[in-house]
Design a protein that fits this description.
By secondary structure, the protein is of the alpha+beta class. It has one domain. The chain contains 2 helices and 8 strands. The longest helix is centred in the N-terminal third of the chain and has 11 residues. The termini are far apart. The mean pLDDT is 85.
Length: 100
């Protein structure tokens, strides 16, 4: 098991995990290089209780892009999601966004 270090930011008396903390956890869990860029597309948090009298929340799920490829991170698993790729079925995402 890999030791994971969380970084929190306080807001309204609650500690929230930072996005960079989530990126570090994903890199460590899947042995990605430390300098690998992870683009967070969407995240979900879960209230987990108290830590030294502070309520805290950490990310429980995330949709990410790594080197332009889409993935869903949940429960310690990273699952490939083709529809989240920057270029999906040969069409750049910016072209799809222009059509909407």
């Amino acid at each position: 098991m890999i030791d994971q270090v969380f970084t929190f930011r306080e807001r309204d008396g609650v500690l929230y995990e930072t996005e960079e903390s989530l990126r570090r956890r994903i890199r460590a869990e899947f042995l990605f290089p430390e300098d690998l860029d992870i683009d967070l597309v969407e995240t979900s948090t879960a209230e987990l209780g108290e830590l030294h009298g502070w309520a805290y929340s950490v990310f429980s799920e995330a949709t990410v892009r790594v080197k332009g490829k889409g993935y869903r991170w949940s429960g310690g698993m990273l699952v490939r999601v083709l529809s989240l790729d920057e270029e999906w079925w040969g069409v750049p995402m910016e072209d799809l966004e222009e059509e909407e």
